[in-house]
Design goal:
Elements (H helix, E strand, L loop, with lengths): L1 H29 L8 H25 L3 E8 L5 E4 L5 E2 L5 H13 L12 E3 L21 E3 H10 L3 H11 L1 H10 L14 H5 L5 E2 L1 H13 L7 H8 L16 E9 L2 E9 L5 E8 L4 H23 L10
Antiparallel strand pairs: 1-2, 1-9, 3-6, 4-5, 7-8, 8-9
Helix pairs in contact: 2-10, 3-4, 3-5, 3-6, 4-5
Length: 323
């Protein structure tokens, strides 16, 4: 009889525990404060914010006094927005992101004979000097002694065209284009040196599409191109400079970008390192009638994109900041 009573008590205890668990689950389901969000629900809410960003970018581009191409890529989940993003645009100085990438790739490939190194030295020659943001024009030819790292800093920080041409010769134009081809980029090409007006008149223009620029930045950001040198590359690309992408962003936001300008052309491409949600962005404009308006359009588009990524990056799946 005692074992039977003990079994009955155990069965009753199990039934009571099961009832309590069932009640707790029912309360959690009925009470949204205790319910957990699902990935599908989170995505649906974020879709609303993404659609607002797209609408904002379209309005800004439509109002610009230029033909505007935009590519924005979430480097976390690779969601992308493209507007006129497969049209081919002149790159102006934005092509320098590719020259810098090839320099860092060669430097990282220590076993390759003839590869350029960041530490390689160079003595400035008078024949190197060309126009266009040329700080090197104030250096003393024949005695000024620079490393490739110095030249790259000038190329990115002040868009020095003389430094760019020296680096192009040192890493090889064909090597830059081979890197782009290996990454599957067909329209992004370095075809002439900086300030080579004769080559430009002959149709040898440096070109890219917004989609290909963000694809390049995405590939670099993943580390599959530069490996352990990836962070150093983006630090160099983030050298402080006057540019359009960060102009309307909070000063605390880290960017790594390269603007470019020619007559009728304004571009800026790079990565905005929003905490927890970095994104790649390329805004390219051509046929521009008002340079200042094109520059502001780039800044406004970057601000619209940042607003989305900042909100997602600092919120939990239910949308609470810092949760």
């Amino acid at each position: 009889r005692l074992p039977f009573l003990s079994l009955c008590r155990e069965a009753a205890a199990r039934a009571a525990a099961s009832a309590i668990l069932t009640l707790a689950m029912a309360v959690a389901i009925a009470d949204p404060l205790h319910a957990q969000d699902t990935p599908e629900s989170t995505r649906a809410k974020q879709d609303v914010l993404w659609a607002r960003m797209e609408d904002s970018v379209r309005r800004i581009a439509a109002a610009a006094d230029a033909v505007v191409g935009v590519s924005i890529v979430d480097l976390t989940d690779h969601r992308a927005f493209h507007l006129n993003a497969d049209a081919v645009y002149p790159t102006a100085s934005s092509i320098k992101v590719a020259i810098l990438a090839e320099l860092f790739r060669q430097d990282a490939d220590a076993g390759t004979g003839g590869a350029a190194r960041l530490s390689d030295t160079y003595t400035l020659d008078p024949a190197d000097l060309v126009g266009g943001s040329g700080l090197l024009g104030g250096f003393s030819p024949g005695v000024s002694f620079l490393t490739n790292r110095d030249l790259a800093t000038l190329m990115i920080g002040v868009s020095d065209n003389s430094a760019t041409n020296i680096l192009t010769s040192r890493v090889g134009m064909d090597n830059v284009n081979a890197l782009l081809a290996r990454l599957g980029l067909r329209a992004t090409r370095l075809r002439r040196r900086m300030m080579d007006a004769a080559a430009a008149r002959a149709g040898r223009e440096n070109t890219a599409t917004p989609r290909e620029f963000t694809a390049l930045l995405d590939s670099l950001h993943t580390g599959r191109v530069l490996g352990g040198a990836t962070e150093a590359y983006f630090r160099m690309l983030g050298t402080q400079k006057s540019s359009y992408l960060p102009a309307l962003l909070p000063a605390s936001v880290r960017t790594a970008n390269k603007p470019g300008e020619l007559d009728g052309v304004r571009n800026d491409v790079g990565v905005v390192f929003v905490p927890n949600r970095p994104f790649a962005i390329a805004v390219m404009t051509t046929y521009g009638g008002d340079p200042a308006a094109a520059e502001r359009a780039i800044s406004l588009i970057a601000r619209a994109a940042w607003t989305y990524f900042d909100r997602i990056g600092r919120s939990n799946p239910l949308g609470r900041p810092g949760g």
